[in-house]
Amino acid sequence: MDGLQRVSFRFAGDLEVRYLPQVPEAGDLVSHETELWVVAFVSADTVGVTVICELPRGDGHHLQHVA
Question: What's the pTM value of the predicted model, to 2 decimals?
């Protein structure tokens, strides 16, 4: 898996690991099951990258950085 990074996504109580060429940024939309989630926080350490996601608010606040 050349050029791919291990990224752990946290969706409320669920955890999903993906191998991606690029790490998402806060404000990006990502899919999980049948819903779109907003990346709220990205953290990197020696183990890898963790992306914390939350469901978008109804007021469109999170959608200012849609990728």
Answer: 0.79
What confidence score (pLDDT) does residue 51 get?
97
Q: CA–CA separation, 29 vs 32, rounded Å? A: 10
Residue holding tokens 């999170």?
62
Taking the C-alpha atoms of residue 64 and residue 12, their distance in angstroms, rounded to an integer, is 22
Q: Which of 15, 20, 45 is nearest to 7 (CA)?
A: 20
Rounded distance between C-alpha atoms, residue 62 and residue 19, angstroms: 24
Q: Where are the chain's structural domains?
A: 5-61
Strand arrangement of the beta sheet that strand 5-11 belongs to = 14-20, 5-11, 49-54, 35-44, 29-32
Rounded CA separation 67/39 (Å):
11
